[in-house]
Design a protein that fits this description.
The complex is a heterodimer.
Chain A: E1 31-35, E2 42-44, E3 47-48, E4 54-60, E5 66-72
Antiparallel strand pairs in A: 2-3, 4-5
Chain B: E1 2-4, E2 21-26, E3 31-39, E4 56-64, E5 69-75, E6 78-82, E7 86-88, H1 93-96, E8 104-108, E9 114-116, E10 121-122, E11 133-137, E12 141-149, E13 157-159, E14 162-166, E15 174-175, H2 176-180, E16 187-191, E17 197-199, E18 204-205, E19 209-210, E20 216-220, E21 224-226, E22 236-239, E23 250-258, E24 266-272, E25 282-285, E26 291-297, E27 305-314, E28 317-320, E29 324-327, E30 340-342, E31 348-354, E32 357-360, H3 381-385, E33 394-395, H4 401-407, E34 410-411, H5 413-417, E35 438-439, H6 443-453, E36 468-470, H7 474-478, E37 503-504, E38 510-511, E39 516-524, E40 530-536, E41 542-544, E42 561-562, E43 573-576, E44 587-595, E45 603-609, E46 619-620, E47 628-634, E48 642-651, E49 654-657, E50 661-664, E51 672-674, E52 680-686, E53 689-692, H8 713-717, E54 726-727, H9 736-739, E55 742-743, H10 745-749, E56 770-771, H11 775-785, E57 800-802, H12 806-810, E58 833-836, E59 842-845, E60 848-858, E61 861-868, E62 874-880, E63 890-891
Antiparallel strand pairs in B: 2-3, 3-4, 5-12, 6-11, 7-12, 8-9, 8-11, 9-10, 13-21, 14-20, 15-19, 16-17, 16-20, 17-18, 22-23, 23-26, 24-25, 24-27, 27-28, 27-29, 30-31, 31-32, 33-34, 35-42, 36-41, 37-38, 39-40, 43-44, 44-47, 45-46, 45-48, 48-49, 48-50, 51-52, 52-53, 54-55, 56-63, 57-62, 58-59, 60-61, ...
Classes of the chains: A mainly beta, B mainly beta.
């Protein structure tokens, strides 16, 4: 099986190059690995996402709202 | 990709076991979407949708939609629980509840965090998918939640141990038991907003369905993960318990509680004998749709373990319920849950399941109807001869209570019917003389039995409609393995155990005991005749005749049949057994749980006191569980005291007691003693000794070890001095009741060494608490009963015929030939049982009796005592140890 890992470790201080993307996260030194194989469906309205789109994982803020804990392109 | 967790003291990152939330950013139009994930399950990946330090998960799909899902949740005034299947665009509870405006007073989550807008407190923060919340409103309102609907099958929920609030993630209502099924063993209780509960331990379910938008308070024995089924998929079914188990049939069923979103097109049960049954095994189809269904399973093998599951099929496939296991009854087994039945007179009958019928295993001997009305007893032949077709009467064969104990009573047809009209229904519907819940079989019900036990003709078959002898071997198969004329016994293949009780002619004469068995049915042939059944020792068939012997004024036996269906649940039915092996301080009691009352017996035993009507407030034992016979030891008794005993049994509905019996702690001459097989021996006190008043007739030692019966002359001749064996005199088992059995010395001693002690200390073949008398113990007896020679006297040390009249005084007053009866002055009641020589030949019946002592003369011979019809003295000699002679036991 072809496994292609899209693993991006991007520090919060690094500019992603996409000015509209507001997701940032902090490398806290502890982490959980999430494998995303290239072949799995990642869709919006049933349409596979395009190169350049992002997926992000978020956690709850204590006062409400979500904060990013990591993302990949 | 890495998802970063929270370090101690930091605010950034995931907390332990926090659920991942996903978004997709579409670059082309700078749009953000909430996305729903699904994960590969272990062992493909280590973790799924919760954060764990150094954990590893693997996404299998991630789906977003540009449309908005909306859930409207109706909330009442006051307190209620809510939850949502929506992942809100704005997950903070402050946003979610914004539509409630100022009507919200307070909201709480399962760990006590609050959202209290009046005071600006919000410790809850974001709503967590899968959790429930408790909320209090000043007025009823509808809360609208907008976002993306979750996929419940991809959203497992961790439910902690103890109390918590649980959400419901599906968009349709569904049965609670279906949704919770995987974790039901760990659920203590669930409550909804209006206080309805689900309490599985007690079978209580007032919630019934889980409803979208509602939240639930749940208490768990241990933490479990719950994953709700998808919106559509397989149906859900459970398998119900198996009932009405017979040798060849049972009743099973199931309940389809959820159709999985598609119509259930078939449902039923499947079974096999190896486990995990599927539609490829034996299958029944019992309709379609949701709901409860039952199925009668037939064609099963006796004494076989079966595995069974309910199933339900819809367009997505077939789902199976839980697997249940049951064993069909063995041939001859008692009826399930009811191994016995007790009549109004407290007679106990064993039961036997034959096919679909539950029969009494013995003939009825009740003398009263179940309402207490007595049946007229007529012993006189001339009085019986005056009876007509409508007269009620009963009798015992030869007017003998001993016969009644074996064969039951003989009844006229009118006595059996107790004013009921003739019936040939199945069931007959005629209780008649039978106990409550039982009935007299109709002619047709007899045919069902005949078809079940005959190896050639089934039921229905025209063969059974014939008159006279019918069938091939039904009669043979129903006969007991003992008791029939010329030892032409049957195989008792089905446990019916028919005995030849004979009948009573309408002229008052008794006939055919030992030769034939005759029973009534409820079906009359004419105003003066009724159909019956008879079995004759010479033939394999079973008779269905009309004519003289079927006149209603004949005396015939009765077998009762249990009414079909499951008896009403109630208290157990229990019988108190007689008390035996009575010593000064202990005794052996017991009972029989004849019916479990429809639920499991959780305690049984006996209770006793010295004042009467004992209960569990008095001294009692706790012995075992279940139905059937049990024994129990009464301890701590005081000597020579009167005790009252009852057996008891407890099920979920309460405790029931058997009939009360009384006994006196061991009192020689009054008390009896029983051996391992239940043979009862009377006792007699002579001087300071307590003797058995009868010869031993057991074929087992007190620990249950069996003793071999050697009948053949040559086999007996081949016995060594070290062999154990017993025989009946002339190999005729009817001699046992009068004379006991004949044992070799080593058998009597059960392998113990010679003893000349007082007491001998050798239990041997005797019951517990009794022993084989030694030489000196015999001499004590001889000195006590001889009118001329006391003990000590040197006369008793000599060999040969000794004393003056000790033998005369020990012999019974009857049974000795040649005018040799004794005076039986002391109640020893010695009877002339004869002996068997080492060559295997029998001799001495009616003229001599010989008893072993515990003293061995040398390796091949031991001492004995003998009485003769021609001597008044008693003989002391030694003989070969492989003689077969009698044994009398002496109390320790």
């Amino acid at each position: 099986m072809k496994n292609l890992f899209l693993i991006l470790l991007i520090l919060a201080t690094i500019n992603t190059g996409y000015s509209q993307l507001s997701w940032t996260y902090t490398n806290t030194g502890v982490y959980h690995t999430i494998q995303i194989q290239e072949s799995i469906p990642v869709t919006i309205d049933g349409v596979q996402v395009s190169i350049g789109d992002f997926i992000g994982v978020f956690y709850n803020l204590s006062g409400g709202g979500l904060a990013c804990a990591g993302y990949a392109q | 990709m890495l998802a970063y967790g929270k370090q101690t003291g930091q605010n950034s990152g995931f907390s332990g076991e926090e659920r991942f939330k996903w978004k997709i950013w579409r670059t082309s139009d700078s749009s953000e979407f909430i996305a729903l994930p699904s994960y590969f399950q272990p062992p493909v990946a280590q973790n799924t949708n919760w954060y764990s330090n150094n954990g590893a998960s693997s996404l299998s799909t991630l789906k977003a939609t540009s449309s908005t899902d909306t859930q409207n949740i109706n909330l009442p005034q006051g307190w209620s629980f809510f939850s949502t299947y929506i992942i809100p665009f704005e997950p903070n509870i402050d946003s979610v509840c914004s539509s409630l405006s100022s009507n919200i007073q307070i909201a709480k989550n399962g760990i006590g965090h609050v959202y209290w807008p009046q005071y600006g407190i919000n410790v809850i923060g974001n709503l967590i998918i899968g959790e429930g919340y408790q909320i209090k409103l000043t007025s009823a309102l509808t809360m609208t939640v907008e976002g993306i609907a979750v996929e419940p099958e991809n959203s497992p929920i961790i439910i902690p141990q103890g109390w918590s609030f649980l959400g419901y993630l599906r968009q349709n209502s569904a049965p609670l038991v279906s949704m919770m099924n995987p974790i039901i063993p760990d659920i203590i209780i669930i409550k909804n907003s209006i206080g309805s509960i689900y309490w599985p331990q007690w079978g209580i379910n007032f919630i019934e369905n889980l409803i979208p938008g509602e939240g639930y308070q749940i208490k768990m024995n241990s933490s479990q993960t719950l994953t709700y089924p998808g919106q559509t998929g397989l149906p859900y079914t459970i398998t119900t318990n198996i009932t009405n188990i017979t040798q060849s049939s049972a009743t099973g069923g199931g309940q389809v509680s959820y159709d999985g979103g598609f119509p259930v097109t078939a449902r039923g049960i499947c079974w096999n004998t190896i486990g995990n049954p599927t539609l490829l095994d034996s299958v029944s189809v019992n309709g379609d749709g949701v709901g409860l269904f039952i199925c009668n399973i037939i064609g099963l093998l006796p004494d076989t373990i079966y595995y069974l599951r309910a199933y339900a099929t819809n367009s997505t496939g077939t789902a199976y319920g839980n697997e249940v296991t049951f064993s069909t009854l063995a041939l001859g087994a008692p009826c399930a849950g009811m191994p016995g039945i007790i009549d109004i007179d407290y007679n106990l009958y064993n039961t036997v399941q034959i096919g679909s019928q539950c029969w009494m295993k013995e003939n009825l001997r009740s003398t009263h109807y179940s309402n207490g009305t007595a049946v007229p007893y007529i012993s006189s032949g001339s009085a019986w001869a005056l009876l007509g077709a409508t007269d009620k009467a009963y009798c015992y064969h030869d007017n003998s209570l001993e016969m009644a104990a074996i064969y039951g009573a003989l009844y006229t047809w009118a006595a059996v019917m107790n004013n009921s009209g003739s019936s040939n229904n199945v069931p007959s519907g005629v209780q008649g003389i039978c106990p409550i819940g039982w009935h007299v079989p109709s002619d047709e019900e007899w045919k069902i039995l005949e078809g079940e036990v005959d190896s050639l003709y089934d039921y229905p078959d025209a063969e059974w409609d014939d008159i006279g002898g019918r069938g091939y071997d039904a009669g043979f198969n129903l006969r007991a393995t003992y008791g029939w004329h010329n030892e032409v016994n049957g195989p008792d293949l089905y446990g019916f155990s028919a005995l030849p009780g004979g009948g009573r002619h309408n002229n008052g004469q008794y006939f055919n005991d030992g030769w034939s068995a005759l029973w009534w049915s409820t079906t009359q042939y004419s105003s003066i005749e009724a159909w019956g059944r008879h079995i004759y020792y010479e033939f394999g068939y079973i008779g269905r005749s009309i004519g003289t012997s079927n006149s209603k004024d004949y005396g015939r036996s009765v077998r009762c049949l249990r009414n079909p269906g499951t008896p009403q649940p109630g208290l157990p039915v229990i019988y108190t057994d007689s008390v035996n092996n009575i010593s000064f301080t202990s005794a052996l009691g017991g009972g029989m749980v004849a019916y479990n009352g429809g639920s499991q017996i959780i305690d049984r035993g006996i209770c006793w006191n010295t004042t009467g009507n004992p209960t569990l407030s008095d001294t009692f034992t706790v012995d075992s569980l279940g139905t059937g016979y049990f024994t129990s030891i009464l301890t701590g008794l005081s000597p020579y005291a009167l005790y009252y005993v009852k057996a008891y049994a407890t099920n979920s509905l309460g405790t029931a007691y058997g009939q009360e019996i009384s006994f006196i702690s061991f009192y020689c001459g009054i008390s009896t003693v029983a051996d391992y097989e239940g043979n009862i021996y009377n006792t007699v006190k002579i001087g300071n000794q307590c003797w058995m008043k009868e010869n031993m007739r057991t074929t087992h030692y007190s620990d249950g070890t069996s003793i071999q019966n050697i009948a053949s002359t040559s086999d007996w001749e081949d016995l060594l001095y070290t062999d154990k064996a017993y025989c009946h005199y002339n190999n005729d088992s009817t001699n046992a009741n009068t004379f006991g059995l004949l044992y070799t010395w080593l058998t009597a001693m059960n392998g113990s060494s010679s003893s000349s002690l007082v007491p001998s200390g050798v239990q041997g073949i005797c019951p517990v608490g009794w022993h084989i008398p030694s030489e000196f113990e015999w001499m004590i007896l001889e000195g006590e009963v001889d009118s001329l020679y006391d003990l000590p006297s040197s006369i008793w040390i000599s060999a040969g015929w000794r004393g003056y009249d000790a033998g005369l005084n020990l012999k019974a007053t009857t049974g000795w030939d040649s005018g040799g009866n004794g005076t039986d002055l002391y109640g020893f009641s010695a009877k002339p049982g004869g002996h068997r020589s080492p060559s295997g030949n029998f001799g001495g019946i009616n003229s001599t009796t010989t008893f072993w002592t515990s003293y061995s003369y040398y390796s091949q011979e031991a001492y004995f005592r003998s009485l003769s019809s021609t001597y008044d003295q008693i003989r002391r000699e030694d003989i070969d140890k492989n003689y077969g002679i009698s044994v009398r036991c002496l109390k320790d």
